[in-house]
Design brief:
4-stranded parallel β-sheet, two-stranded antiparallel sheet
């Protein structure tokens, strides 16, 4: 009996398969939480401080992505494993916004050479202008999966714009 219990305990793992939204990196997580508040359950794939460029998703990560209603990632050049991972539901690749243009990298940065080189800078969340587009796209996707909270999401999106305007005026 002890052997059977030992073998069964080795097969047990914890997942957050109830997540409505799965995001790959913290800037996206922060935007989703700002807009959706606690109305939607959000799962962050890559914890803060972990190198995004070389991250490989765990089995739990993949299960969460497959079962969620909305999967958000930045760009295939940053999360090479993300495209095509979700079969049904909504996948939002933030770099697909026609107003977001990945900037050409003039010099290969040393920290990218050991993680795979990028021809374009995938770090779109560092641009306040691109963040505005990301907020808009994320809000629209949240409304698509949860239209019952549309007014709250739109209001929170508008409030986030006021914060970006204020921070732009402070600099």
């Amino acid at each position: 009996i002890l052997c059977i219990l030992f073998m069964l305990s080795g097969c047990k793992y914890t997942t957050n398969t109830d997540a409505d939204v799965v995001v790959t990196i913290f800037p996206q997580y922060d935007i989703v939480k700002w807009i959706a508040e606690d109305y939607l359950d959000v799962y962050l794939v890559i914890p803060p401080g972990v190198d995004t460029h070389s991250y490989d998703p765990s089995v739990d990560d993949i299960l969460n992505i497959k079962k969620c209603d909305l999967f958000i990632y930045t760009t295939p050049s940053l999360e090479q494993w993300a495209p095509g991972l979700k079969d049904d539901g909504i996948t939002l690749e933030l770099s697909n916004n026609p107003n977001i243009h990945l900037e050409k990298v003039l010099e290969k940065e040393e920290h990218h050479t050991h993680h795979g080189e990028h021809d374009h800078d995938p770090h779109i969340w560092t641009s306040p202008i691109y963040v505005k587009y990301m907020v808009e796209d994320i809000c629209n996707a949240l409304i698509e999966i949860d239209p019952s909270h549309q007014d709250i999401f739109i209001n929170n999106k508008s409030n986030s714009r006021n914060i970006y305007k204020q921070s732009s005026n402070d600099s």
